[in-house]
Amino acid sequence: MSYRIPDSLIAEENARALAAHEDEYGALSRKLARRGLDIEAIAAAVAGFGVAVPTWGVGTGGTRFARFPGPGEPRGIFDKLEDCAVINQLARATPTCSPHFPWDKVSDYKELAERARALGLAFDAVNSNTFQDQSGQPLSYKFGSLTHADRDVRAQAVQHNLDCIEIGEKLGSKALTVWIADGSNFAGQSNLNQVFDWYLESTSQIYARLPADWRLFLEHKLYEPAFYSTVISDWGSSLMAAQALGPKARCLVDLGHHAPNVNIEQIVSRLIRAGRLAGFHFNDSKYGDDDLDAGSVEPFRLFLVFNELVDAIHAQAADFDPAYMLDQSHNVTDPIESLMQSATEVVRAYAQALIVDRAALADAQRQSDALGAHRILKQGFLTDVSPVLAEARRRGGGALDPIAVYRKSGYRARKAEERPAVAGSSSGIV
Ligand code: LRH
Ligand code: MN
After folding, report:
1. Nearest to 407 by CA among 339, 345, 334
2. Ligand 1 test: best mutation among 281, 283, 291, most atoms within 8 Å of CB?
3. Separation between Cα atoms, residue 398 and residue 378, nearest integer Å
4. What pLDDT is recorded for position 198?
5. DSSP letter (8 states) at residue 78
6. Residues near ligand 1 (Cβ within 6 A)
7. How far apart, in whole angstroms, are the C-alpha atoms of residue 263 and residue 305?
8. Closest of 386, 349, 344, 345 to residue 21, by C-alpha
9. Alpha helix (H) ranges present in 383-420?
10. How distant is the alpha carbon of residue 372 from its chain centre?
11. Nearest C-alpha neighbor of 54 from the set 127, 150, 108, 109
12. 279: Cβ–Cβ under 8 A, 6 or more apart, which residues?
């Protein structure tokens, strides 16, 4: 029998911490009330917010140099779903997960959908993969996929994406995320305009096969693995493609896919304005696509992104229903702990943005009161909303302190017994 963390342990640990929690919740409630804010409204909004877990982030991640698997590594998608269920059981913010194919390939997707349902989980966007060659694959993606100079390779890549849509339909997903590594390492290696034509030619064939209620998420990335040019390198290329393809095509913002110091919150604002914001791959970074834990390097930037999202909600922006997903690589932490912490930091940024006094901010902006406006905005970020996040978890049956309960449960050690170590690849992100 596979070990599950008993809800009784959560209840015991919550009871131990309840008095202190109620005191802090009361203090925050009074602080927000002095600002004319109702903490119960924030608690309700937080309880209704969810961010998807990347199935590829549940196992230990790595880099091109090495990957150091930990104990109790998930052996496949069924183990990954079990771990996703623990993240949601304790942190109550991740009711969905985003699968990646063929990494999560199984013979029976109906069985997979049922297993997820039994664990209280659903599937968000499915991710295709034409950035690696699979064993037995007829044509290589070494020189590209959807934009390869050889039409047969492009056709192979298109077919893989159609297969992912078919799988996604069986899983109840409503979107396909397409990130391609296509690009070049030398000036002259590819015609920068021709490859964009091939991108549109290929993605329009995928777009044509989208079910009516599906979306196509186009994910841009500045560089890596291509180091001279990347076909969909920025939001401009992504938006041009989305607008050329049709209304179901949207632009996905992975926070790590931009040059250092790029104003990502303004990109978000522009994509919202265009009605083309697909959603997010949340993570954090200091240099490149570091895939570090969300909120662990630049929490203020994450807050500023949510400030644009809450502003759009207030403005009832058209065509606004972004998908919130994490996309991280956990190379030195227990992935379950990192994903619980990161989901909590994403919800924190949302709650902080919710308590910004938007009327006062608009006033200060109208009066060009630069510092006044900044202080009003920053007050949201500087307010410790931890008590309302904890209360939303507690009311949802989760843990006041998810990581403390997880460590107390001994879940990882139990999984190490249940899951014999698999000979993992010595390097690579998964
Ligand atoms: C590319 C990316 C993409 C995934 C991959 C695992 O860097 O962000 O979203 O397919 O990571
Ligand atoms: Mn991503």
Report:
1. 334
2. 281
3. 29
4. 98
5. H
6. 56, 127, 179, 219, 221, 254, 281, 289, 327
7. 10
8. 386
9. 386-395, 402-409, 411-418
10. 33
11. 127
12. 125, 217, 250, 252, 253, 322, 323, 324, 325
Tokens of 66: 């090495």
* Rounded CA separation 157/139 (Å): 9
Find all residues with CB under 8 Å of 226, minimum gap 6, and list them. Answer: 181, 182, 183, 184, 185
In the prediction, which pLDDT does 423 show? 64
The series of mean pLDDT values per 10 residues for the chain, 430 residues long, is 95 98 98 98 98 97 93 96 98 98 98 98 98 97 98 98 98 98 98 98 98 98 98 98 98 98 98 98 98 98 98 97 98 98 98 98 98 98 98 98 98 96 66
Instruction: Tokens for 226, please give them.
Output: 């291509």
Q: Helix %, strand %, coil % for the chain, to 5?
A: 50, 10, 40
Coil, strand, or helix at residue 306?
Answer: helix
Instruction: Give the tokens for residue 227.
Output: 């180091």
Best probe residue, ligand 1, of 161, 233, 254, 328 (max atoms within 8 Å of C-beta) = 254
Ligand 1 atom closest to 429 (CA): 6
- Ligand 1, atom 4, lies closest to the CA of 179
167 DSSP β-pair partners: none
Predicted pLDDT of residue 1: 78
pLDDT confidence of residue 420: 84
- Cα 365 to chain centroid, rounded: 32
